[in-house]
Write a structure and sequence with these properties.
The chain is of the alpha/beta class and 134 residues long. Helices cover 27% and strands 33% of the residues. The two termini are 17 Å apart.
Length: 134
């Protein structure tokens, strides 16, 4: 069975967070969006659900953390090339995000990342072995 993955993250300012990811070039799915949630299309089977803090808390068994001060999750998104990794990081910074480390080239894997407007960590990786397996 083919599955889809929906990553749910809290957004302090839903419109600003939605605009941030649209500036990175990702799509928007209006059917799963309203004034409390935005569905960002990362790929055919991968979606990011940005939820207002109030909506996020209504689904979570635990209190909401301050993701600028604590790390709740490390999201890792594969890219098709080293250039795409660098391009997405540049777009993220231009859209108001920030980097937290330097690019890392391990030969078979190239990685860099950013924090979005809400402090969520996004690792971007290009791995040569993934390209031959896809």
């Amino acid at each position: 069975m083919k599955r889809k993955l929906f990553i749910n993250l809290a957004a302090g300012d839903l419109k600003a967070s939605t605009d941030f990811f649209l500036q990175l070039g990702f799509g928007f799915h209006p059917q799963f969006s309203d004034d409390t949630a935005s569905c960002i299309v990362l790929s055919d089977d991968l979606y990011l659900m940005l939820l207002t803090n109030e909506k996020f808390v209504s689904f979570s068994p635990n209190p909401l953390i301050n993701s600028h001060q604590q790390t709740e999750v490390l999201n890792c998104l594969s890219c098709h090339s080293k250039a795409e990794v660098d391009e997405l990081v540049q777009k993220a910074v231009k859209a108001g995000g920030k980097t937290y480390n330097q690019p890392q080239d391990h030969g078979f894997m190239y990685a860099h990342g950013f924090q979005d407007l809400d402090g969520h960590v996004w690792e971007l990786v290009y791995m040569e072995m993934l390209q031959s397996a896809v």
